[in-house]
Fold P-type Zn(2+) transporter.
Amino acid sequence: MDCAEEVALLKRELVPLLGSDERLGFDVLRGKLSVDLSQTSVRSADIMTAIQRTGLRAEGWNEGASETSDRISKEQRQRAIFTAVSGTMGLAGFILASLWPTIANTASPIAITCYLLSILAGLYPVLPKAWRSAVTRRPDMNLLMSVAVLGAIALGEWFEGATVAFLFSLSLLLESWSIGRARRAIATLLDLSPPIAHVRLASGDVQDMRPDEVTIGSILVIRPGEKIPLDGRVTKGASDVDQSAVTGESLPVNKQSGDELFAGTVNGDGLLEMESTTAADNTTLARIIRMVGDAHSKRAPSEKWVEKFAAIYTPIVMLLAILMFLIPPLAFAGAWSDWLYRSLVLLVIACPCALVISTPVSVVAALAAAARNGVLIKGGVHIETPARLKAIAMDKTGTLTQGTPTIVDVVPFPGHERVDLLSRAAALEINSNHPLARAIVEEANHGKIAIPAVEHFQTTQGMGASGSIDGKTYWLGSHRYLVHRKLETPEIHDQLEAAQQAGRTVVVVGDETQVYGFITLADVIRKESRQVIQQLHATGVEHVVMLTGDNAGTANAIADQAGIDEVHAELLPADKVAAMEMLVQRYDQVAMIGDGVNDAPALARASLGIAMGAAGSDAAIETADIALMSDDLSKLPWLIHHSQRTLRIIRQNITFALGIKILFVILTFSGHASLWAAIAADMGASLLVIANGLRLLRADHNNC
Ligand SMILES: Nc1ncnc2c1ncn2[C@@H]1O[C@H](COP(=O)(O)OP(=O)(O)OP(=O)(O)O)[C@@H](O)[C@H]1O
Ligand SMILES: [Zn+2]
């Protein structure tokens, strides 16, 4: 399956079977059809028979098989030979006919034989499909072209018939060639061929293996300059690793013992040893490639539009062709041959090829270029949304800020000791994975403060945590959590308020009856945040909104530094969802960007959920519509530019392809169009539109 016509053909058979085309995914570039049979009574054998009815043949998909491309190139060679024969024979016929000019239209038998051979060679791969399309009364491009050629023969226009057959064959060849080129370009963009894994055996020897033979937990040696074969963790050595293949980061990242490594990234000058943590087909890179491959089957809105349009356009133009053939001769005594010719030209114009091929090529190129840049777009559906965003909501901690808060001050209330405060806080926080927790535990460790064991540890989302030490309950959390615990006094309130106004995050610590004091922390804004928000405004995003669980004072301080338009602070996770719903109501197209860990519900509620720093986090990749693999906020304006550019190119292509058609309809009515010009224009349009779409592959960082 390598053209839009075949997609339409398959759909006609399969959609009635499945009830909806949502269950079908077409990947024209790889000749892959995926069918979702879940919760249906349809069996895969039924699908196979239905496919056979179309005249195509299906085989089970085998990921990474080279046979598909072998077969495609074999078919291409065959097609090339037939096209060449068609061309030479047509030319021979033309020369012969020119040598016997006396017999003008009814050329010599030898010339006619040449033309006939040219026509047969040109239509050879097409005729069976055309026949099937005629029998099932579902006209397609093959039938249109065959009728046009037969019509030309009937008119005695042998030369035109041969030219149409040849050009049609040539255009199919060029189309499959340029799609092949697109396929290869995208493959090289994503294919980071599996390297060799040097496995350290128990004996200490090193053995070379293919990555898919390596068991999880093996120790691998990675020499300087080599590609890392599997995901894993550094166990020995240190080195700078070029992670651009996975995260799109241009600068190498320093890796030390315990750090995460990704398959497909390239080791710098150090020798590393790592422990593998995934199987070869489940590495982050393998999943990215799989997702980009499948992403295309979730079609973009403009693709759906084009398909719908083509489904109406073709029958209408065909009807027009029939009317043009019948009405002028019958009603106005026009010459039959004249109007037959014109109606044949219309038939050629009815072919929607350039129009239908343009969008998928652009979308796939855009998805591949984004993946190469560390932006994983999980469906053609999501490629157009960034360009339409009216507002973007952002999480504060870890998105706008670096997400590694540090302790500013530890404030014990009178009658309490700093040491007690910190030891209890650290005892609780050692069980928590909140960014604040890490800082507090570190501070206790730093002061060599003993950390007692905690039982019954429990977190209260967006507020704090509690647990018991030696049978006594302790808690810590936000100002709001203190109020919730009903232990606030006016003096405490004023102190906390002052710290919050100064832009600090506060964590209050206490037990059932009293408050021990509080810890203030500060998180640093990312250095790129301010510029990114300016760029977002420049791309047309009118409102940048902060949604945070932190207090209003800190939220406003960060918002001021970053240039945020609107702040919603002290939100519980459920409040974030509600705020998101309100924003979607108000601005229609709203994205939410977060780390995907505690804001997954809000991400899911946004028009577009974007997860940041997703390379290490499976959860983030799964929940988001778009995952920024690196921790780099500046990918966000890049994404919007990329989406706008994709949309622009798709629109250019549609306008151009339609423009050519309209031009030719006008030329035909006025009697100025010829068959061969119509088909040559269609072919040229297809090629231009594909080439234009492939421009999206060259989408690097600076190319906004
Ligand atoms: N484990 C914890 N330790 C200490 N304080 C906590 C903890 N969990 C929540 N809090 C308190 O609750 C507040 C809100 O927490 P939440 O996790 O909702 O937001 P955040 O992650 O700090 O910010 P953002 O919503 O921008 O990511 C924190 O500022 C903190 O004061
Ligand atoms: Zn208060």
Summary: Residues 635-669 form the longest helix (35 residues).
